[in-house]
Structure to design on (668 residues):
């Protein structure tokens, strides 16, 4: 059914937000998810395709009785009683059976025929004696057999071998693969709906199949919309963003077996977008629009989709997070979906609503997501009225191997949240708070959970980025979760990480990090780095002043906006010490890393903040030194003997590493 419209397009709201399952039910009822039809595909192009018909073998595999070893074709009874002390003696025939030869020799009692691995068994023989268990004895010279057996394992270099001395008995069938042992003519070897792997294509080749009937790949048209979107490769411009959604959506379509058609970027122009949408509907099996689904004045995608009929929009606004603005529609059974513009929302809603449709159209079975229990590492606040799908990163506890789940807190606008998450847990629409320590079910995003070799939780640092990159080159996979120094220290105490990056100042002693250690923790000394006040050069409120004087001036000026850091970070501890309880304008703005502070100042959203000197230099900003701080690594003693931790220690101590850290501007 069509969603009611408000009188003023610029002020429209979501008038009917549906439950997730109800939205999916309406969507599925309006579309056709049957496979798209059958096409003939050559064997060379069959990998990754889905069979649309059973494959029945027309030949036996193997198609003849063949030898499994290099040896001698015999009648098994002739070998009975053979031993090292008393071998059985047989006569050798003139013929030597290599591969691709149809033998002419009839093996009779008392005779044997040399045969190579894969050679066709001669008539009369029912077993093969391995060359290691027989000796060839030559009696004459200048024979065709002698020349043919020259260099044969166990045979002479010259001479006519007329006797075979067998030192081990064999039974009938030994060393032989009989026709049809692997595959029998008339056998169904692969069934409809099979997703062809390299193992399957090998089977097809073995039975002589040159082409298969496969379900046609559904065509998925992808349109990126919005005046702010620019293509990767073009210079970045103010207030613009690169089009990442169409890339990830196209590749996700290909991973699912569909054919992605990226139709480029269309600005927020109603006529242009209307034309592109109808072109896509005419040529594709599914149409995806990325962006413009919210009901603001500048969002036009859903307005174009609202013009569709048979039936048109079936759901616009779903009670879930992320992804509330998703718009589900259909026209003449063709799905048309407007995904939210924010990357995490777009990717998540794609996998929830669109991916199962593509899978069905491809003829593939729907794969069930694996679920694992995990304990929430921190308290989570949720929004009443919406089912929240909380993306999490999983780490293993040192104590009992149980899993801890860390929320991926970057929000819907993040382009990395979905790619770095291990799974998600659903928080019910009537739940407002989930306490830390609550055990939740986490649905894995991949088929298997692959835990990192080294888990690092704590404060972000460019030196740490470098060290983890070196470890990656040594084959050690790492996972870093940026939660700040204090939360990293707590994670180390709970045994949830191998290393915590910290720079916590003890105000009583003036010492960094070591005063915060417990008996269960050890410290790996890191390096020093310079923190200070960052500002735009030329700002008289800061230029030429000490840090204390500059901050005093900034606090006294109501128009001077600061940018803070997140609670729990070492930098926040330093900021709060310097402000001594004062909360100037901008105090509530709390990004989670040093680069974000510099960006806020450089882009004039703030006038000052605390960050590192190397970050300020890269951003072209003014810098007033405050404190030379120590950045160290805390290790739970229960984990310090792990190979990955020991590798981290070794790499950190190497002279080349120290030199590289100094090149980054760190005092290593």
């Amino acid at each position: 059914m069509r969603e009611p419209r408000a009188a003023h397009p610029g002020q429209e709201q979501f008038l009917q937000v549906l439950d997730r399952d109800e939205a999916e039910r309406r969507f599925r009822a309006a579309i056709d998810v049957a496979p798209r039809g059958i096409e003939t595909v050559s064997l060379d192009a069959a990998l990754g395709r889905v069979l649309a018909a059973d494959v029945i073998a027309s030949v036996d595999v193997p198609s003849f009785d063949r030898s499994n070893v290099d040896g001698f074709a015999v009648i098994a009874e002739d070998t009975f009683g053979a031993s090292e002390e008393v071998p059985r003696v047989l006569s050798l025939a003139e013929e030597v059976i290599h591969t691709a030869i149809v033998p002419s020799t009839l093996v009779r009692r008392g005779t044997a025929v040399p045969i190579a691995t894969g050679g066709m068994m001669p008539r009369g023989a029912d077993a093969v004696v391995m060359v290691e268990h027989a000796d060839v004895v030559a009696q004459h010279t200048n024979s065709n057999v002698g020349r043919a057996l020259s260099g044969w394992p166990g045979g002479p270099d010259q001479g006519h071998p007329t006797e075979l001395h067998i030192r081990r008995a064999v039974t009938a069938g030994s060393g032989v693969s009989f026709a049809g042992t692997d595959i029998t003519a008339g056998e169904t070897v692969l069934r409809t709906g099979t997703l062809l792997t390299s193992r399957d294509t090998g089977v097809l080749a073995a039975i002589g199949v040159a082409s298969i009937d496969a379900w046609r790949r559904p065509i998925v048209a992808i349109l990126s919309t919005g005046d702010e979107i620019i293509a990767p490769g073009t210079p970045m411009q103010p207030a613009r963003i690169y089009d990442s959604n169409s890339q990830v959506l196209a590749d996700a379509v290909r991973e699912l077996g569909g054919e992605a058609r990226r139709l480029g970027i269309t600005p927020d122009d109603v006529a242009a977008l209307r034309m592109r949408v109808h072109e896509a509907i005419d040529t594709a099996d599914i149409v995806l629009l990325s962006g413009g689904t919210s009901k603001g004045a500048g969002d036009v995608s859903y307005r174009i989709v609202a013009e569709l009929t048979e039936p048109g929009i079936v759901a616009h606004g779903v009670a879930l997070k992320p992804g509330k603005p998703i718009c589900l529609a259909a026209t003449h059974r063709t799905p048309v979906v407007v995904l939210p513009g924010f990357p995490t929302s777009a990717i998540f809603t794609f996998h929830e609503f669109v991916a199962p449709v593509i899978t069905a159209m491809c003829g593939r079975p729907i794969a069930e997501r694996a679920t694992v229990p995990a304990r929430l590492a921190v308290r989570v606040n949720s929004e009443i009225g919406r089912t929240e799908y909380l993306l999490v990163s999983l780490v293993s506890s040192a104590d009992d191997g149980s899993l801890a789940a860390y929320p991926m807190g970057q929000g819907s606008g993040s382009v990395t949240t979905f790619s770095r998450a291990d799974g998600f847990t659903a928080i019910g629409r009537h739940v407002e708070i989930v306490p830390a320590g609550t055990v939740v079910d986490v649905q894995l995003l991949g088929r298997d959970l692959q835990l990192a070799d080294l888990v690092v939780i704590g404060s972000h640092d460019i030196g740490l980025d470098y060290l983890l990159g070196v470890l990656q080159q040594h084959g050690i996979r790492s996972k870093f979760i940026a939660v700040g120094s204090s939360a990293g220290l707590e994670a180390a105490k709970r045994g949830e990480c191998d290393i915590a990056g910290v720079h916590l100042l003890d105000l009583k002693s003036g010492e960094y990090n070591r005063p915060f250690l417990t008996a269960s923790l050890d410290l790996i000394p890191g390096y020093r780095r310079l923190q200070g006040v960052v500002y735009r050069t030329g700002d008289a409120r800061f230029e030429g002043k000490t840090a204390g004087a500059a901050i005093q001036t900034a606090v006294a000026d109501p128009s001077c906006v600061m940018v803070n850091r997140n609670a729990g970070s070492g930098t926040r501890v330093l900021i709060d010490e310097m402000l001594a309880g004062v909360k100037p304008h901008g105090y509530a703005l709390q990004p989670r890393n040093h680069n974000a502070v510099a960006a806020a100042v450089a882009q004039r959203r703030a006038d000052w903040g605390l960050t590192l000197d190397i970050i300020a230099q890269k951003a072209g900003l003014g810098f007033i030194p405050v404190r030379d701080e120590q950045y160290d690594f805390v290790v739970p003693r229960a984990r310090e003997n792990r190979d990955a931790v020991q590798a981290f220690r070794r790499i950190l101590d190497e002279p080349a590493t120290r030199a590289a850290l100094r090149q980054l501007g760190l005092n290593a």
In short: The first strand starts at residue 38 and ends at 42. Residues 1-15, 141-148, 153-159 have pLDDT under 50 and may be disordered. The chain is about 25% helix and 25% strand.
